[in-house]
Amino acid sequence: MPKTLIHKDLLFPAEPGVRSIARGLYERVAGLPIVSPHGHTDPRWYALNEPFPDPAGLLIAPDHYVYRMLFSQGVRLEDLGVPCLDGTPVETDGRTIWRRFAGHYHLFRGTPTRLWFDYVLQSLFGIDEPLTAANANAQYDRIADCLARDGFRPRALFERFNIEVIATTEGPLDDLKWHARIRDSGWKGRVITAYRPDSVIDPDFDGFAKNLDKLGEITGCDTGTWNGYLEAHRKRRAYFKSFGATSSDHGHLTAETANLSATEAASLFDRVRNMRAGEKDKRLFSAQMLTEMAKMSLDDGLVLQIHPGSWRNHSAAMLAKFGRDKGFDIPTSTDYVSALKPLLDLVGLERDLTIILFTLDETSYARELAPLAGVYPALKLGPAWWFHDSPEGMRRFREMTTESAGFYNTVGFNDDTRAFPSIPARHDVARRVDCAFLARLVAEHRINENEAHEVAHELAYTLAKRAYRL
Amino acid sequence: MPKTLIHKDLLFPAEPGVRSIARGLYERVAGLPIVSPHGHTDPRWYALNEPFPDPAGLLIAPDHYVYRMLFSQGVRLEDLGVPCLDGTPVETDGRTIWRRFAGHYHLFRGTPTRLWFDYVLQSLFGIDEPLTAANANAQYDRIADCLARDGFRPRALFERFNIEVIATTEGPLDDLKWHARIRDSGWKGRVITAYRPDSVIDPDFDGFAKNLDKLGEITGCDTGTWNGYLEAHRKRRAYFKSFGATSSDHGHLTAETANLSATEAASLFDRVRNMRAGEKDKRLFSAQMLTEMAKMSLDDGLVLQIHPGSWRNHSAAMLAKFGRDKGFDIPTSTDYVSALKPLLDLVGLERDLTIILFTLDETSYARELAPLAGVYPALKLGPAWWFHDSPEGMRRFREMTTESAGFYNTVGFNDDTRAFPSIPARHDVARRVDCAFLARLVAEHRINENEAHEVAHELAYTLAKRAYRL
Amino acid sequence: MPKTLIHKDLLFPAEPGVRSIARGLYERVAGLPIVSPHGHTDPRWYALNEPFPDPAGLLIAPDHYVYRMLFSQGVRLEDLGVPCLDGTPVETDGRTIWRRFAGHYHLFRGTPTRLWFDYVLQSLFGIDEPLTAANANAQYDRIADCLARDGFRPRALFERFNIEVIATTEGPLDDLKWHARIRDSGWKGRVITAYRPDSVIDPDFDGFAKNLDKLGEITGCDTGTWNGYLEAHRKRRAYFKSFGATSSDHGHLTAETANLSATEAASLFDRVRNMRAGEKDKRLFSAQMLTEMAKMSLDDGLVLQIHPGSWRNHSAAMLAKFGRDKGFDIPTSTDYVSALKPLLDLVGLERDLTIILFTLDETSYARELAPLAGVYPALKLGPAWWFHDSPEGMRRFREMTTESAGFYNTVGFNDDTRAFPSIPARHDVARRVDCAFLARLVAEHRINENEAHEVAHELAYTLAKRAYRL
Known about the structure:
Three copies of one chain form a homotrimer.
Chain A: H1 16-29, E1 34-36, H2 43-48, H3 55-59, H4 64-72, H5 94-103, H6 112-125, H7 136-147, H8 154-160, E2 163-167, H9 177-185, E3 191-192, H10 198-201, H11 208-219, H12 226-241, E4 247-250, H13 262-273, H14 279-300, E5 303-306, E6 310-311, H15 316-322, E7 330-331, H16 341-347, E8 355-357, H17 363-373, E9 379-381, H18 391-405, H19 423-443, H20 449-467
Parallel strand pairs in A: 1-2, 2-3, 4-5, 5-8, 8-9
Antiparallel strand pairs in A: 6-7
Helix pairs in contact in A: 1-19, 1-20, 6-19, 11-12, 13-14, 14-16, 17-18, 18-19, 19-20
């Protein structure tokens, strides 16, 4: 039984020479501030600075990585405190949920969740033995005790985590009141928003038509017309920028883009707006809107993030019972080369535009994304994403992108999480994996050690700041 | 020249620390009984317990891994004793075939066949020098001599191999007489069958219509109607269960499933049954039948195995001359996320159902299969299959599935072979590769060594028993 | 700061035992002659044997690997001396270009370009410190000084590089006058051509119709008819063979093949010839022509190379401004199993035919290409190509093809380059990566060390000669 949950050599290659190089690289970047340019924490936390709820409410019920694994092995979401839309009663006792989780903790062996969780237990709550059914109660008590203290409130943790800047994600209909509250509070923590307009771009989004009505009200634009609709976007983007936004984010099903004439686009919008659009029209509209967003980015400087390829809410029954985002988003095969061509023909050569591409389809790393980012000035590669935000996933990302795109067409790390306590763990894993990769390059005499130090610093800190204009 | 064909550290990582961990893990699982829940050995062997034929007839002519490689380099199948459908005379002298094989043994460098073959030579026949043209005669003599002894008959080998249970594969039209003979013989070896109904489900299967007639005769059901046809399946499944079957197995071209209404399904069956089905109907029928099988599994508890993605008998000329299964089955790109949705919407959340997914398209491991199995309770992942039943293939399987699905949504190892003597070799390779993978996780401090021991035991033995309900 | 740019252990695994094996393997193949069966150097160089231009004109402006990376980071091609079609003035001062490149040299960290470049600097120009902005001038002077010497003229380098044979690539309309000049010069260097008929096979090629007219003039065949057109190919192939050609090369968008009747083919040709072909016809024509080329290969013995899957000149604007082949060729997903079936059904079992398959879609290595090449006698696998001609790319190629196709269904290394000075570097990288792979197999006791020596020799030298009939 180890005396520590997180070994100092975690994730470093076993070969002593390489490990020694990795350690040396990591030592110099381990303590760098966290730049978190893309994530989903709740700005309310920073605004109100209230204590977090009990251990289960903080660490289990909101983490789909956690409950999807338990669900796959027969544990019902109700029994983990995940709320049902239909009002079915769910477990509310945090301790019971925690014990249930502890009894299944072996399921996470070999997964990143295990690493993040152990990291949180140790670094945040000072726990140094693995969670088991036997010690679940004691660990629960200890964590609950911590959470009640002021030093564990959101702002204190933000500072303790050494977060230089964090971006949240809001939709165009959000009034950003929590961001306003943060700004007005005098607290120095830098929390910015990001513009995520899926709810007014995806015609299949819940309440799409009403969302557009509301967008019109908020902006005073006529969202019944194409030009008014575009103008409304411009106004909201400007508003988001006034709360620090430097990027927009787009979760389309595919990477398809289009470049319609203004007339065609207006006519398409008309059909979509009046609910006369078929599947083909809906996809075309999404495609056109990526291009419109890119054009606006050229004007206002927001970085455009494209996150395609997730089949959201794959299980109809789970969507009906528990709602969106319950661990049933499944990646699909994703094309970029033909999908992005209309966009790239229009703005791909622009040197002042930054488009960051993500993928859940690793086959595109070496085949499409690295060759594209290795030549188009507007393109950069986002880090290994979601299911690939993991040691093996990150390693494959570097192995499959570096040779064609280099390091400098990538943008550092995104934690992409709503699990606030896990943010340092996630950045730590990324820094370790990148240092391990660089150490191998050094050991194989492919780069020099001093270069590796420079690159490690870029990957851990500088690239994210530069790419996201932070 | 080494003194042994199979080194004790075979397949373990070279780094001494990791190797030492791998050895320690392997030591405790190397001797575990073999659970072989999916394979294609001939039940007649165990029933009659007759001596195996000569070395070439046992080790070369029936092994498509062997003869496809030789064929690719210009050796004719006739010259290896593979029978021709048209009666073309083929080589019948085992020694000549063996010598021909020995002269090409270098072709297998770097392939799993080489490892399996060496393992068999050494562990079964006590041979400790590599096969060459020079020693081919002597090795042939030694093997032939062994095969003549009682200790090399099927049942003796079964016991020597420490097989706890082995499944064979039979079609619904099989009377399972060899299984009956085994059962009635008083021999204690556990040989069970598995239900493989391709011949009465795939409308393109040779003699499909006649097969359905025969299915009707055997079961007393009216296989001219949809309901009668389904009832016939139910009866045969029950019959197979009475011979120990715990699973069904389905070798469809794709993973497509469907969920038609009873009326639509009956009408589709009608077209298929009366040979009025076009390509689209045929595919839809196969798709619907996967769903029907899953529904029956819910009732009778058989584990459903889906083995899609192989373009069978790719060469028309070879199919015409030598028949099916002559090494010309080629994998194709395979989608699971949309293909399985109808089935998953119907039964994917069932906790008492087990559906085991296999693939020949490794791109689906991390992108589709691990995310699916990591959330749907009914889904488990079959091991690296066929061309990927190899050290690199197994390593990639673990590297690409563990982080999203964990170890516990996988089902241990399947040898999937008709090459009986190679079974211990195949399980040994799998155990070694899994221990090597676990050793790396331990060395990189991602799991503890005691956890690795537990997982190694699960992968080598327990998971297969549990998943296949053995 | 290291004393050498290329470490003697470059690319060898760090673990001392494996490294030692790799060194031992490499030592025996490092000095083997270079066989370069597929490349794009300019035969004019060897014919005229004039000095190469200044350092930038030799090493930067013609190398799309180099300038695409700089372009991706905002450097304009004009500023690197890449000529514009529209006559826009471009930088002509080699020293300025060289300094610009030096200032961005860090971008190449982790890329093969860096390895090749360092190798050239060191082995050819005796430079032993990394290129930086600070030493750019000095290095420029040194290289310029070298290039002025006789020992750096093409033929001297050819001999110094120990090139046993090199193939260039020419189109059917080329008169091969430079090859004639080489042949007539009395120089002993073996420079052969290869038949690359894209300009008269791809209906979308610039000037296709005129190209066919010209093909008719050159051959005296009526290229207005299908039979005349085929005969013209036969004549040109024979002409190319008289200049040493042993292969043809085909850069189709896909691997699609067809096997039309003579009547259908003639009618299709008619539509294509008279510019009445739609997209579908054009693709079918390309598909049919691969089959026609294979049939001609059966007669004349030329090895058929298929290089599919590159979306050429992806950026319309860059194509318009700078022309073809400016680093904007992007790989796409590529199917082989169904695409090649018509061709394989016709000639796939021929033992006297050699078809070499390349891919830019690594997903096809283990799924399609290795299983195909591991059974069809006519098929061999070309080496890791283009973006995958890199250490990680080559490693993945071996890891994903060897277990199903073995080593002997691969064809050694192709440098595939027009960057003449980099040829030894590229072969050296390939030899090192293959030795590293083999060393791992030895260390894991998967092959013996003496076998590894044999295989290393095959991969570095013999396989290319045999496969390309050199």
